[in-house]
Amino acid sequence: xxxxxxxxxxxxxxxxxxxxxxxxxxESVDYEGLKENTGFLVEECKGEPxxxxxxxxTGEKYAVTDNEWRRIVKTVVDAANGKxxxxxxxxxxxxxxxxxxxxxxxxxxxxxxMVVLPYYHVPEEEGLYLHYKKIADSIEIGLIPYNNPDxxxxxxxxxxxxxxxDNTSNIVAVKENTPFIQTxxxxxxxxxxxxxxxxxxxxxxxxxxxxxxxxxxISGYANFMxxxxxxxxxxxxxxxxxxxxxxxxxxxxxxxxxxxxxxxYGPSTTILPYPYxxxxxxxAVMKATMDMLGLRGGRMRLPLLDLKEEDKKELERIxxxxxxxxxxx
Length: 329
Fold this sequence. Notes:
This protein is α/β, with parallel strands linked by helices. The chain contains 13 helices and seven strands.
């Protein structure tokens, strides 16, 4: 799918599923499990506006080697087989390395790449602009800037995004992760008629901001309950706020369990103030959920922690008795 078609596809509304990377007990990548998970999503979501993003933040991209990253990207592209767009995470703080990853993704058949803001050293606005401009110019596939201050400690302001939109042809969307709704709205007002702004913070935030003009959202939950994810997407795009409220209430027990686990496994080491993310135990909960449903969740890689056995019984009850999910395999 060329950048223009991918942009049009996303503008109509989509769920971007950020895939979890399954690791075996010895911490090696479970490539066969990743292939099975991808096949499940492709078959389960036939006819739905799905995009797959392997090795993003949710896929623990920072914890895999370069060779593992390449093999993960190729595994998903091959398993998707052109049936759904694949936009892998190709982030790196160094522009040259990010460009190399972008070219690799293009060479193996990905439809685009998602690139988080450069982390570690803090660039000036000109450096940030040139980072994305050079990556975009190095490829012929789509590029989705991932505007996430939680993981980068920097932020792309609307004026920089507008400059990128005006001077590149293959920015196909923005994954917007600001916790400040007024800033999100500034992005939508600045470029939203040209580039779709995707809510990067998941289901609850999509429901809370869809009326502002976000065109879809990024979901980790879609790994194992994609039907619910698409039901929420359609309710939001159709302005069915009663339906959205019902669905968010349905998800409340699961999210309350995640919040409980984050507190239990703390304290967090973040120095960022509220409302930035203080714990990522959500990934361990989602992986355990996938295992319980018959998918391949697997374990975490350090420095993130696995969910302990003592907490899985309560999670199992929420999955099957409250959310009423069914075993997939």
